Amino acid sequence: MITLNSIYIYFLAIKKIFIRSLKEFFFSSNYYNKLLDTKIPSSFLFNPNPYLLSPFVNHNETLIKISNEDVRNFRINLFKNNERENIHNFLWLNLIDRKNKNETIQKIIREWINKYSKYTKGIWDERLTSLRIVSWISNADLILNTSDKDFNKSFYKNIIRQINFIKNNINSISDENKKISSISLLMLSGLVFKEYYIYYRLGLNELKKFIDSNFDDHGFPINRNFENLLTFVQYFILIKEWVKSAQEAVPEYLEDIIEKNLICLNSLNNPSKKLPLFNGCTDRSLDNFFTYLEKLNYSLKKNLKSVGQVQIIKNKKTTLFFDSGEPPNYRVSKDYQSGPLSFEYSSDKDKIITNCGYGRKISSKIQILSKFTSGQSTLCIDDTSVVKFKKNNLINKAYGSTISNSFKIFDVERKEDKINIEVSATHNAYLKKFGYLHKRKINFSKKNNDIDGSDYLIKKHGNSDVKFSIRFHLYPGINTIKTLSGKSILLQTNGNKSWVFSSDELAIDLEKSLFFGKNKALSNKCIVIYGKTMDRDVNINWKLKKAS
To answer: Is residue 186 a contact partner of residue 167, using CB atoms and an 8 Å limit?
Structure first.
């Protein structure tokens, strides 16, 4: 049904795409590229520690040595789309053996400047550009050692050109990851170049606005994206350490958001060291970042029982995450995955029950597929997703695939005694169309870490006999054996621990599934319980316990 609101959003999308096209045309003009040329600095006020970029770098065990042959390969790979991120962000400079010949690095940068000194779509993407210049500045000792005056002038000139591009566009950047990376570049440029200190002040103002508009009271992103939490705090700490190195005063609001972010992150820490796969998150490990925090003397002590509206149960070496949150505002919903009351379960270092993960980096089709309710470990009626995603290509191009409807979660409860922890919640996403509420209750045993779950379909109106499915997606690598009774499945983890999933009410099926958490589509397995409501209330009980 076409509404005034949908028409309004449609025209906003047209306007946004039109402005974006005009900007692309303008950015490519000689006139604009001349505007990027401003005063060239002659030196750095201080040299940022390259180690501070460690969270952004895919570290290898060995350092990289670059030869003249690598310069040729670099030239060949410049236009390969799959190499764009890895090559053009220049974060690989952090992995260069400092004994490497500096002339070779200079050849590569000369090659890059010869090809891309003017605005180039994609290569001058705000996030990519910001990371590139931050890396150039942080590794200036490696780049400029033994360099001549001509190279130095060209190097500084191109740094400023790209910084000016970011400065000119900072107000129009809507993507949160591009925004925070751009803010960090502005602040660093103002700290290291005395001629551009005003950029530091501009960055400070943008940082304050970013923090005020993107986090809840606990310091968790309002889009409920768990990966964003990790990314944002990495940038905040990076900025804080730069400010300290420049002997500037660290803003109180920056200290405050870092503290809150780290409490949230520590609350999510678990023996598997993996972030839970809710709302746009991929299979990110926390291990390296916690090591990084330790080296910088950041403490991680306080824990919360709920983060981003996800209930957290920790006991010994076992962790359970239970999503009791509603969808975010549609304006920040492009990464929302429709899995109300879904959960993830880990024991020791093994994740056992998981959601499928986010497919944004795989393809646009996979991205949409990974958002459906069937891709989450929860109940689904008639294979219908709990929210609808805008299907208009124009709107998706402008804003991403945002949600077009919402629902309520209520009766969120958490009970705890010496023996058990019980969490429960109810949502009404299926009420209007199917006449049912979905309630999930999970009881966690502190003694043996077993869980007893119950899914309720509560009839409120209508005369309908609806089909439902309850999916429990297994983490890749879990081996399975279905018993002859059809009532239980034996699970064996990578750590050679055995578990039994069972249900006495209905038969259990074992089906093929897909896992997107590792930024590629992996074949996987899924436990499924199918059933019909028979026009009445339904209660399905299930268990996950260690094999004796």
So the answer is: yes
Residue 266 phi, psi dihedral angles, 5° rounding: -65, -35
Phi, psi angles (nearest 5°) of residue 174: -100, -30
Tell whether 307 is covered by a domain. Answer: no
DSSP class of residue 39 equals P
The C-alpha atoms of residue 285 and residue 273 are separated, in whole angstroms, by 5
Segment 171-183 mean pLDDT? 94
| Structural domain of 32 | 24-197
Structure tokens at 533: 């409501």
End-to-end CA distance of the chain: 55
150, 180, 197 - which closes a domain:
197
Q: What is the pLDDT of residue 489?
A: 94
Report the distance separating Cα 351 and Cα 347, nearest Å.
6
Q: CA separation (Å) from 157 to 43, 154, 183, 385?
A: 12, 5, 20, 52
Which residue is listed with tokens 């994740």?
Answer: 351
Q: Given a cut of 60, is residue 20 above it in pLDDT? A: yes
Domain-ending residue, one of 146, 170, 197 = 197
For every residue of 468-494, DSSP letters joined together read EEEEEEEPTT-EEEE-TTSSEEEEE-T
Task: Collect contacts of 411-420 with beta carbons under 8 A, ≥24 apart.
Answer: 411/439, 412/311, 412/324, 414/305, 414/306, 414/311, 418/446, 419/445, 419/446, 419/447, 420/444, 420/445, 420/446
Q: Which helix (H) or strand (E) holds 221?
A: none
Give the span between the Cα atoms of 233 and 261, in whole angstroms.
6
Identify the three-state secondary structure at position 390. Answer: coil
Q: Which one, of 406, 405, 408, lies nearest residue 438 by Cα?
A: 408
Instruction: Identify whether 87 is part of a domain.
Output: yes
Domain of 396, CATH number, reads: 2.70.98.70
Distance (Å, whole) CA 245 – CA 502: 57
If you search the block for the tokens 């604009």, which residue do you land on? Answer: 32
Separation between Cα atoms, residue 430 and residue 427, nearest integer Å: 8
Compute the half-sphere exposure of residue 25: CA atoms within 13 Å on the CB side of its CA: 6
Q: How far lies 200's CA from each of 35, 127, 203, 207, 348, in Å? A: 20, 18, 5, 10, 45
pLDDT tens by residue, 344-369 = 999 988 999 999 999 888 888 888 88
CA–CA separation, 38 and 34 (whole Å): 9
Give the residue among 239, 227, 208 at the shortest CA–CA distance from 134: 239
156 assigned to some structural domain: yes
Residue 47 placed within a domain:
yes
- Number of structural domains in the chain: 2
pLDDT tens by residue, 148-173: 899 999 999 999 999 999 999 999 89
**10 Å Cβ neighbour count for 28?**
13
Full DSSP string of 102-170: HHHHHHHHHHHHHHHSS--TTTT-HHHHHHHHHHHHHTHHHHHTT--HHHHHHHHHHHHHHHHHHHHHG
Rg (the chain; Cα; Å):
26
